[in-house]
Design goal:
The chain is an alpha+beta fold. Helices cover 32% and strands 29% of the residues. It has eight helices and twelve strands. The strands form three sheets. Strands 3, 4, 5, 6, 7 and 8 form a six-stranded antiparallel beta sheet that branches. Strand 5 and strand 6 form a beta hairpin.
């Protein structure tokens, strides 16, 4: 009876592995996965979430094709129909050419390896060589992928846009960091005023530890929050246009004023 069942499982594409120990342990591998309707919708959501410009889009869609290659006609209709809920990750540029670089950075993060690379910021005419960078994470925001790391050049934690990291002779994974070596990311605490028209009801949580500290008579609110970098804070508040005003700290308000002045010069008639 056992041999008959094993033969039937084999017809289903399931391999039965028997251990050399006593008593024997049987392990089943392979076979066809059966999905419920909610599970098919989740798979479809994953399919539609990752745009073709995602650095790992090919691997993601290859896995999904492997999981769904056996679907019946009815299951295919459920899987391929347009999903009402959509949360697409659509990078501003094609990041597939940077898939290998992203994988190397992931390796450095997992192994706690220092990284060396040349980086070309948008505001500088030539790349800057960062001889040692302590890796933290890879983050996606503002439709770009950023490698977060502590640079020993500047003594600060930076968000390096991955497409601006130069894949040349300078790039290398270096020695592993000692266990006691770690730099904590210092978030920037700031305050801003949000106009009454946007302060009604629940306020979008765009920043870490965001909290309302003052309600003004006209309906405006003063919010205190924390941000990962001055660039991220300024760019996020600019999305509110004239409905948000950066108040403190003074140095960050000055940077915002410079951004707004530069923008105004572009539209001077």
């Amino acid at each position: 009876m056992l041999d008959r069942d094993i033969a039937y499982l084999h017809l289903l594409g399931i391999t039965v592995e028997r251990s050399a120990t006593r008593p024997s342990v049987f392990t089943l591998r392979g076979g066809t996965l059966l999905f419920t309707e909610p599970e098919l919708r989740i798979l479809a959501l994953l399919r539609d979430t990752f745009d073709e410009s995602h650095p790992q889009s090919q691997d993601i869609h290859a896995l999904l094709n492997r999981l769904t290659s056996h679907l019946t006609r009815h299951e295919q209709q459920l899987y391929y129909q347009r999903q009402a809920l959509q949360v697409p990750v659509q990078p501003a540029i094609d990041y597939t050419p940077y898939a290998a670089l992203t994988a190397q950075l992931e390796t450095a993060i997992a192994a706690r390896q220092l990284v060396r690379f040349a980086y070309w910021p948008a505001e500088k005419p030539t790349p800057t060589l960062h001889r040692q960078v302590e890796p933290f994470a890879i983050e996606y925001y503002e439709r770009h992928f950023y490698f977060v790391g502590y640079s020993f050049n500047t003594g600060q934690i930076h968000d390096f846009r991955i497409d601006r990291i130069q894949e040349d002779d300078h790039f290398a994974l270096l020695e592993r960091m000692p266990p006691e070596m770690a730099h904590e990311r210092q978030l920037i605490t700031f305050r801003y005023r949000l106009a009454a028209v946007l302060a009604r009801g629940e306020i979008s949580q765009r920043f870490a530890n965001q909290r309302v500290i003052e309600h003004r008579p006209n309906g405006d609110v003063i919010i205190e929050a924390e941000g990962r970098s001055s660039f991220f804070i300024r760019r996020t508040l600019l999305k509110y246009a004239g409905n948000a005003e950066l108040l403190e700290p003074a140095w960050l308000r000055a940077e915002m004023a410079a951004d707004v002045a530069a923008l105004a010069r572009l539209y001077t008639l």
